[in-house]
Amino acid sequence: MSAPIRAKINIVYYSTYTHVQKLAEGLKRGAERVANVDVNILQVAETLPEEVLAKMGAPAKPENVPVATPDDLVSADGILLGFPTRFGMVPAQMKAFLDSTGGLWATGALRGKQAGLFFSTNTQHGGQETTAFTLLPYLAHQGLQYVPFGYGHPAMQKNTEVIGSSPYGAGIIAGVEGDSPSKTELEIAEAQGEYFAKQVLIRVLGEKAAEQQ
């Protein structure tokens, strides 16, 4: 009996105050519910000096999470990119990482792979959608297939609780107290992770079947 076909998902995030990191962990838990899917979490390298981070009160980056390289995008069948907002736009750290992938664009190395997004803002109207918008041109130029989450969790259609997330992906409203993500926000992240993993596995299985025809 032949071994089952497996899919690989790399979750690549940047997080200053651990909010996005916790969201990434939720996405991983959800994705791992899908059989025959391998999931890894990687972090984007910091670009701010240590003295600046110290003045910002930013905690140390986790030592057990590898720093992502462009090769980590190539090796994955699906990629989830997570980041906080900076004035409604993707932060410089994530932008610097993506800017380093020009060689992948030149060779078409990412064409056909699937990608999803998740994000964090400090307020309800701090850029939950506009921050996602700023990554769409990158996905298009690389030929990545964007997999939006849609309204994939019932809490996203209710207004009884203040939560992050949008049809573009799971999100957090961090707040000034830093008491996030909430239980509901993590549930949405897990739901997106599971949904994304299923879509990636379906594509991988379909491609393998097409090759055998």
Automatic annotation (TrEMBL):
InterPro entries from the UniProt entry: Flavodoxin/NO_synth (IPR008254), Flavoprotein-like_sf (IPR029039), Flavoprotein_WrbA-like (IPR010089), FMN_Rdtase-like_dom (IPR005025)
Signal sequence, start to end: none
NCBIfam families for this protein: flav_wrbA, PRK03767.1
Species in which this protein is naturally found: Thamnocephalis sphaerospora
GO MF, one example: FMN binding
Xref: PANTHER family: FLAVODOXIN-RELATED PROTEIN WRBA-RELATED (PTHR30546), FLAVOPROTEIN-LIKE PROTEIN YCP4-RELATED (PTHR30546:SF23)
Gene3D superfamilies in the cross-refs: 3.40.50.360
Flavodoxin-like domain residues: 9-196
Similarity field: Belongs to the WrbA family.
GO cellular component: membrane
Protein name: NAD(P)H:quinone oxidoreductase, type IV
Domain of life, source organism: Eukaryota
